[in-house]
Amino acid sequence: MSKQSRKAELETFIGKLVSAVSNAALYSPEHVQVKRLISIAYSCLDDAMDSTGEISLMIIDDELISEGSPVGNNMYLNRFAQMLKNRGIETIRIITGVTPEELLMLVKSLSMQRDRRREVRSSEHIRLGRVEVRVAGKEDNGSASKEAVSVPKLTLSDLSVHEQTKLMEIYEGVKKHNKLSVAGIYDVVSNFIDVFKQEADPFMALSDLRNADEYTFTHSTNVCILNLSQAMSMGIEGQLLHDIGISAMLHDIGKLFIPEEILSKKGQLSNSEWEQMKLHPVKGAQHLLDTPGVPRLAVAVAFEHHMRFNFEGYPKVPKGWKQNICSHITAVSDFFDAMRSRRSYRDPMEAEKIASIMHSRAGLDLNPLLVKNFFRQLDNVSTKQE
Ligand SMILES: [Fe+2]
Ligand SMILES: [Fe+2]
Question: For the chain, which domains are there?
Answer without folding.
Answer: 3-148 (no CATH), 156-385 (1.10.3210.10)
